[in-house]
Design goal:
elongated, five-stranded antiparallel β-sheet, phosphoprotein, alpha+beta, seven-stranded mixed β-sheet, 24% strand, Beta-Lactamase, 23 helices, protein histidine kinase activity, 795 residues
């Protein structure tokens, strides 16, 4: 280390960081003279004392000077000094650390003096204190940054306009409003940016602002291009120069279009609400916590004869309303405020017009809370329910009368049934005697005169006819009371037809009517009541004989249409008038109801035929070409319960022709509690290749599925709805539960078809809503069923 370096004064900046110098005191400029070749400082001016250093302490080796320079700036200062010897002047700013460890910003400038004859070259320099100026510059830069950040952060347009109405300054929001870059906005005239229409509207406000007054206004302006009509709130603030004159306007422009639209919409809703409330038929009022009326609509005048002005500002008790109204309403309102819950009550008042009548009102008291949840008001609604109350009372009285009338009707029906039973007994007893005596006489005069034989035959036919009339009368009574029942069992249909035909031969012979019979039925059986089937055919044959002139013809034929038996009774008699066809099957209705009727009977035969046919699951069809052109009655009966038959017009041919499509490879689960119907359907499906599992209940269905297993489960199930223990809807849910337990997720479920006698539209809706994929009505044709199976199985 050199001697000069060893004698340097100690400076604290070598041991701890220097502190920035406080503002307020500025050092004097220090002048110095250097020997650039020797690298020594020859002279330092006395101004160094203002820097806290003696001038002599800074002379000599330059290390004395560096002792007061921040170490990080040494290299730059040495390089600048080194350049002096080569004639390179410098200007350098660095950090000066004084003896008190205060840091200041210094600027040093050095210059090489020109050579003179006989004198070495010298360098001169000047040290300036630029701390305050640097701080002021930093503050200014920071202020400009803050100002720029503030103006750019403002979400609405901000612009400074000079006296020529040109843009001197604008923030980004203002430029974006017109879709322009910032540089394209500065210096442009407002007319170019806003357009002529908008500029002309704000021109008066600009003039007022440049006159020295702050302007604040709202206005709808028509801007050019895509901006369109916008509502703005603008504030123009004058900016004055040193002489007090207005040199510019600072304009803040806020787009309030959406707010205006909301205000318009709110005003519209308020207007509609006021219109609605004021014209509402119900009394609507608002009460404050002191139970004073702050609002009431004009319906109060129609209801109670007082005006809204009479009630505004008054409590309920002080209002001119009758005490019978104010008392209950006052109590309910207090309770609503206490509990915070809606209160309802009913008022029964004596009517103003007729004192003997009462007016009935329902009232609601609805508490209203403020934003803090405190009850601040209550909404009172009173509406007239007089008509509804009186209607309910009248309806209740009518219901009581209807119930009494029903009880009387049921009692009368019971008395009628008892009377008819007695009549039947009393009429059958003498008829039985007459019939027995007729057989005694027949045996006594066997082989007697033809006249005697004819007389006995007439007696026997009359007895039989009377018995039939009695039976018809009783059956009609059972039909009307819903008590007619059938005894179902399999029987041969042809036998019943022959019995009915034999029972009318005597009547036909008496009227010289020729009977023609033909049948293609063999030993086909039908599930039903043999006596009732015979009664159907007997009534049709008797009816045909009665309305056919003497010497006419009656035909009875029977054949098969698929699995349905078709029975046709035809005559060439009086026929049916077109006007009477709609009433043909009504009880007690006869085409000839005059006092000079040419035929007898009670008018019950065809009504019974229709009802008995329907109870067997069949259909009845009547046809006539008109009066005196004969009539044809056709009865369709399924051979077995649940057998399929067409629902097309009964005179038509079968619904489908040709063989049934194949169901090969299809496994079907059939569920029906009727054994015969189930067996018939299973046989039909097996004949077309289906693998059928036939069960009679839901429990048996689950057992059958377990026997098949998940991998061999059926693709389709056909299920009846009306089953004894549990209906088809419950069975379907059980099968779906079985699938969820036994079948892997994502596997398509078993397609479900409902085959039922419930044929109303609501029945179909319920079936599909319960999970069935198809709803078929019994009886269904084989073609329709096979088609549905193929559709559901996607064959």
């Amino acid at each position: 280390m050199s001697e000069s370096a060893a004698n340097l004064p100690a400076t604290p900046h070598g041991t701890q960081p220097a502190m920035p110098a406080p503002a307020g005191r500025r050092h004097l400029d220090v002048f110095w003279v250097d020997d650039p070749l020797a690298g020594t400082r020859l002279h330092v001016s006395a101004a160094a004392r203002s820097w806290g250093v003696q001038p002599d302490a800074l002379c000599g080796t330059r290390e004395h000077w560096l002792a007061y320079v921040h170490p990080d700036d040494h290299a730059a200062l040495r390089a600048a000094w080194g350049g002096l010897s080569r004639g390179q002047g410098f200007t350098l700013e660095y950090r000066w650390i004084d003896a008190d460890q205060l840091e200041r910003r210094a600027r040093e400038r050095g210059y090489l003096m020109p050579h003179t004859e006989g004198a070495p070259a010298h360098a001169v320099g000047l040290l300036e204190d630029v701390t305050q100026r640097q701080q002021a510059l930093t503050t200014l830069v920071e202020s400009e940054f803050q100002l720029q950040w503030l103006t750019e952060s403002v979400p609405f347009p901000l612009v400074q306009v000079d006296t020529a109405h040109c843009v001197r300054f604008a923030n980004r929001a203002y430029a974006q409003r017109f879709g322009l870059p910032m540089d394209d906005v500065l210096g442009r005239h407002l007319r170019e940016l806003m357009g002529d229409v908008a500029y002309s509207r704000v021109l008066a406000h600009l003039a007022e602002g440049f006159a020295g007054r702050r302007v604040d206004f709202e206005m709808e302006l028509e801007y050019p291009h895509d901006i369109g009509r916008r509502f703005v709130h603008a504030a123009y603030t004058p900016q004055r120069g040193p002489d007090g004159s207005v040199q510019a306007l600072v304009c803040m422009v806020e787009d309030i279009t959406e707010r205006k639209e909301v205000e318009r919409e709110r005003f519209r809703h308020e207007r509609e609400f006021v219109t609605l409330v004021e014209n509402a038929p119900d009394v609507i009022a608002r009460l404050d916590r002191e139970l004073r009326c702050v609002y009431v609509n004009r319906a109060v005048t129609d209801a109670f004869g007082v005006t809204p002005a009479d009630m505004i500002g008054q409590t309920l008790a002080e209002s001119p309303l009758p005490a019978s109204v104010t008392g209950p309403l006052d109590e309910a309102t207090r309770l609503a405020f206490e509990t915070g819950t809606e209160q309802t009550l009913t008022l029964h008042l004596e009517a103003n017009v007729e004192p003997t009548r009462f007016a009935h009102y329902n009232a609601r008291v609805i508490p209203e809370a403020d934003r803090l949840g405190e009850m601040e008001a209550a909404l009172l609604i009173v509406y007239d329910v007089t008509e509804r109350t009186e209607a309910e009372r009248e309806r209740n009285a009518l219901l009581l009368r209807e119930q009494a009338a029903r009880a009387q009707a049921e009692a009368a029906a019971l008395a009628r049934d008892q009377f008819l039973a007695v009549v039947s007994h009393e009429l059958r007893s003498p008829l039985n005697g007459i019939q027995n005596w007729a057989y005694v006489l027949e045996n006594q005069i066997s082989g007697g005169a033809p006249l005697m034989q004819r007389a006995l035959a007439g007696i026997k036919a009359g007895v039989e006819q009377q018995v039939r009339l009695i039976e018809d009368l009783l059956d009609a009574t059972r039909v009307m009371s819903g008590k007619l029942r059938l005894t179902r069992e399999p029987f041969t249909l042809r036998t019943a037809l022959e019995s009915a035909l034999n029972s009318v031969r005597a009547l036909a012979a008496d009227r010289r009517i020729t009977l023609h019979a033909s049948s293609t039925l063999a030993a086909h059986e039908i599930d039903g009541d043999a006596d009732r089937i015979q009664q159907i055919v007997w009534n049709l044959l008797t009816n045909a004989i009665k309305f056919t002139p003497e010497g006419g013809d009656v035909w009875l034929s029977a054949d098969l249409v698929g699995d349905v038996a078709r029975i046709v009774v035809r005559d060439n008699g009086r026929g049916i008038a077109p006007a009477f066809v709609p009433y043909l099957f009504d009880p007690f209705r006869q085409a000839d109801d005059s006092h000079t009727r040419r035929t007898g009977g009670l008018g019950l035969g065809l009504a019974l035929v229709k009802r008995l046919t329907e109870l067997h699951g069949g259909r009845l069809h009547a046809h006539s070409d008109g009066e005196h052109r004969g009539a044809t009655f056709t009865v369709y009966l399924p051979l077995h319960a649940g057998a399929e038959f067409t629902t097309r017009p009964l005179a038509d041919a079968p619904a489908h022709d040709g063989p049934l499509p194949s169901l090969a490879g299809l496994r079907v689960l059939l569920i029906d509690d009727q054994q015969d119907a189930r067996d018939a359907l299973a046989t039909l499906l097996a004949q077309v290749g289906a693998d059928v599992g036939s069960v009679g209940s839901g429990q048996e269905a689950i057992l059958q599925l377990d026997a098949w297993g998940p991998s061999a489960r059926p693709q389709v199930m056909v299920c009846d709805i009306a089953l004894p223990d549990e209906d088809g809807y419950v069975i379907l849910q059980k099968i779906r539960w079985w699938e969820r337990q036994r079948v892997s997720a994502g596997t398509p479920p078993i397609a479900a078809i409902a085959l039922t006698a419930f044929a109303q539209p609501d029945d179909r809706v319920r079936a599909l809503a319960s999970g069935f994929h198809e709803h078929l009505v019994k009886p269904v044709s084989p073609h329709d069923l096979v088609r549905a199976l193929r559709v559901q199985a996607r064959l």
